[in-house]
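ARCHIVE CARD
Drawer: 12
Card no.: 0347
Subject: one protein chain, sequence and derived structure
Cross-reference: see card 0346
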Amino acid sequence: MGISTKTGDSGKTSFFSGEKISKTDLRICSIGTLDELISFLGIARSIAAADHKIKDVIIKIQSNFMMLCNLMYDCSKASDEKILEKINEIEHNTSAIESKINLPKKFIVPGATTLSAQIDYARSIARRLEREMFQSKEAGHDVNKYALIYLNRLSDYLFILARDIDFSEKHGFDTLAK
């Protein structure tokens, strides 16, 4: 099967259920944002040094997103369990990084390093995706509640990953004076 189905020219696309829906449907828009996030994380991964630990972390997040793409609008028990496992993993990883760095009490300005800036930008895409999924839910679509929790925790994780990069590469953070 080729990449082109030649069936999407009318502004409709097939949803996971097989239902034909508008390409501007909130669910399709959020899936597009997820695709953007996966791709942008690929940019961040590509600029990291070959031996940088972040490469493996990003690959894992990208893999989790491939799973999430199929489950974000699936509210079955099996989907919940898969996503809960990933939530627990992210919470554990976030706590591990938080325990080794002291975050300043001031607002941290993104851009201390190119790599941390890329991770911060990915975080902002993740937050947009979370908002889009809430819009979809508010519009009456089924949204997996654990997918929303995962995205919320992921944006925290991306924030702390960027700070870990700042700390390890610059030994500090850029902050705004109070």
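Annotation on reverse: Residues 12-170 form a domain with the Hypothetical Protein Ta1238; Chain: A; fold (CATH 1.20.1200.10). The chain is about 65% helix and 5% strand.
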